Amino acid sequence: MNCRGRSCDECFVGEPEGAPILRLVAVDKVLDGKKVLDNIDLDIPRNRITAIIGLSGAGKSVLLKHMIGLLKPDRGQVLLDGVDLFRLSRKELYETRRRFGMLFQSGALFDSLDVFGNVAFPLREKTTLGEAQIRERVHVILRKVGLEASGAKFPDELSGGMVRRVALARAMVMDPEIILFDEPTTGLDPIIRNSILNLICRTFHDHEFTMVMISHDIPDIFHWCHHVVVVHGGKVIEAGAPKDVRNSVNPFVRQLVQGDIEGPIQLM
Amino acid sequence: MLLRVAEGIGGKALGATGRLGRMGVFLAVAVRDALVPPYRGRDILKQVHFIGVKSLFVIVLTAAFTGMVLSLQGYYTLRKFGSEGLLGAAVALSLIRELGPVLTALMVTGRAGSALAAEIGIMRIGEQIDSLETMGIEPVRFLVAPRLVAALVSIPLLTAIFDVVGIYGGYLVGVKLLGLDAGLYFGHMKTSVELADVVNGVWKSLAFSLLIVWVCTFKGFFTERGAEGVSRATTSAVVISSVLVLIGDYVLTSVLL
Description:
The complex is a heterodimer. Chain A is of the alpha/beta class. Chain A has ten helices and ten strands. Chain A has a single domain, classed as P-loop containing nucleotide triphosphate hydrolases (Rossmann fold, 3-Layer(aba) Sandwich). In chain A, the strands form two sheets. Chain A has a six-stranded mixed beta sheet with strand order 6-7-8-3-9-10. In chain A, β9 and β10 form a beta hairpin. In chain A, α4 (115-126) runs parallel beside α6, α5 crosses α6 and α6 (160-172) runs parallel beside α7 (190-207). Chain A starts with 7 loop residues before the first helix and ends in a 10-residue tail after the last helix. The model of chain A has no long low-confidence stretch (mean pLDDT 85). Chain B is an all-alpha fold. Chain B has one domain (41-256). The longest helix of chain B is centred in the middle third of the chain and has 39 residues, at 87-125. Chain B is elongated, with a radius of gyration of 22 Å. The mean pLDDT of chain B is 93.
């Protein structure tokens, strides 16, 4: 199952062009006395879909929050096009975040706004567009995610899949360069899950955003991305093309990819 | 053993100092965002409606009965000294100097302060505050500053309404029920209440407004651990705000007297 009858790694066979758009250098983070990120070095290739996989609690969401500057590393750097996010002033950091869109696991829609209001929100807050232009732009985006008829619905009237689609629309509406997805398909049934992944893939082909996605959809995710990063115990233990990660000899990666109960990762 | 006790005390002191520091920074950012443009006029109006207009009924009700009970107690106490003619002045001074600002602040804390803490707390645990940040929107400017301005506008007005309604509640009992002369009730009030009393009441209600929004939004903003966290944040926001209003009242009274 994929968006154009072929998997993402078949769409781009060449190496990504230019330097990585995002680079994490020797990042450490301790939360509640526990080292969640341990000397993380990671490159996010430009205009590609990168999947971050790993066990729950491995530090994936914390990693994603560092990429957009929501969390500050205790040590190390987060470089966006070579600029350290945490050397920016507060104002510059907020401006830089306009280059990002983010889809949260819960959707993080504003309960007091309807679907249209949620998608229009960043445009109303961060642009000088008139109401007519905002309306037109929101309608185009809602059509893309198949929710044109649901603009007047409120978040509590939406299914899980619809919430994620609205969140995706909101993440895309400012035309960002990078979209971060925190488990966009968790808790969805297989059909809805595939439709969301398909939508993400089609969005990528239409806009060629750089996308970073945390996912537990193993092994399906290997068909949907160009670059895979495996995180375990707060460290990056493998990173590369999907086929390389799938064929990794690292026993932790093998166990994770194959979903084996037996192996070096002991849960109980 | 002694070392462990000292470590424990030191750890708690450090934690408390850190929390106080964080609260101080939060307040400074909120005040700065409230003062520096762009102002969020529509949001401020919405919050004036929520904090002010929607609290009106409970304020009027509380004020009326406070004035009535003050009048009832005051009348029989003053009669013992043959001074029931001073009832109007006693009711008015009690309300304008103390009870108006304090009871208004306590009622607004219960009605609107708890809602502020809960609403912002739910936004925190639902990742909506993180979502604002990812859109490049400063959450304190967006969520706290309009509420702060709205409270600074609404609560002094509610206090003024409280005072007036309370005085008329006292009038109802003192004059209409107990038969005191209306001219006596209002006459002594006019000669006893000074502008300084009203100004002190306004300073108090402004200080309480700041206190309520500060504590309630701070508690909501740093809510942790799901629904239980929201419940805990809401409860502690109301308790801490109420206690601080009473402590603040004593401090301000001693400074302003």
